[in-house]
Amino acid sequence: MSEVESFFKSAFSVDNVIFGFDGSDLKVLLIQRGAAPFKGKWALPGDLVYPNEDLDTAAERVLEQLTGLRGVYLEQVKAFGAVNRHPLGRVITIAYYSLIKISDYSVTPASFAQSAKWHSLGEVGELAFDHNEILDNCLKELKHKVRMAPIGFELLPPKFTLTELQQLYESILETELDKRNFRKKILSMNLLQDLDEVQEGVAHRPAKLYRFDRKRYVKFVAEGFSFDI
């Protein structure tokens, strides 16, 4: 084998970090591997890229094959290429991530995924390969993005309270936010529309209901902002 030919003996894979919000908690979707290596271990939904396949197509295919999820917007985050990250040979993986509303999707494990389950971030434990490192990097990216673009339009009910919106931000940032400062900041952006309605059928004092101003939301997505809270 020539020196040049040796450069073409590496494989590529994709790993998907799917964050899900259930209304109160941020979770990540993991599969339990039914094949070696790391058989029986929990891992991110990932697999090798076919020789005739581009990366984005591979990410979508692998996610659907292992979990049944389709139509999920996946954003490429980073490549991981430690020499010994895969026990069977040199494999460079490209990580993708997404944030979805759990109730909008049904998970159906297949292929070498024995099972697929949503895990709270604090209960993930040790994953196969270097998937803990990949998960940590994607979480950092999500925390950065939530401060630069509005996240929540697809994750909350059409009508929601400021408390529910704050819970979403606290779940992503993994920190408790000052209620007064959060409300002052979010309302000053004119991103929300006051519906002049309150909650119904609650045991506590009903809170005011809001919805996102779609035009301003789209503008913020395109232009970004600094949500320093």
How would you describe what is shown here?
The chain has 229 residues and is an alpha+beta fold. It folds into 2 domains: 5-146, Nucleoside Triphosphate Pyrophosphohydrolase, CATH 3.90.79.10; 162-223, Arc Repressor Mutant, subunit A. The chain contains 5 helices and 9 strands; from the N terminus they run ββββαβββαααββα. The longest helix is centred in the middle third of the chain and has 16 residues, at 131-146. It is elongated and about 70 Å long. The mean pLDDT is 92.
Number of domains: 2
CATH class type of the largest domain: Alpha Beta
Number-wise, the strands total 9
Q: Could you say which overall geometry the principal axes of the C-alpha atoms support?
A: elongated
Q: What's the name of the CATH homologous superfamily of the largest domain?
A: Nucleoside Triphosphate Pyrophosphohydrolase
Oligomer: single chain
Beta-strand percentage?
Answer: 25-35%
Level of helix content?
25-40%
CATH arch. level architecture of the largest domain: Alpha-Beta Complex
Largest sheet: 7 strands, mixed
Helix- and strand-based class? alpha+beta
Stated plainly, the CATH topology of the largest domain is called: Nucleoside Triphosphate Pyrophosphohydrolase
- SSE series: EEEEHEEEHHHEEH
The DSSP helix count reads: 5
Low-confidence stretches at least 5 residues in length (pLDDT < 50)? Answer: none
Topology diagram in text:
Elements: E1 11-21, E2 26-33, E3 42-43, E4 46-48, H1 55-67, E5 75-80, E6 91-101, E7 113-120, H2 131-146, H3 162-173, H4 179-188, E8 192-198, E9 208-212, H5 214-223
Parallel strand pairs: 1-6
Antiparallel strand pairs: 1-2, 1-4, 2-3, 2-7, 5-6, 8-9
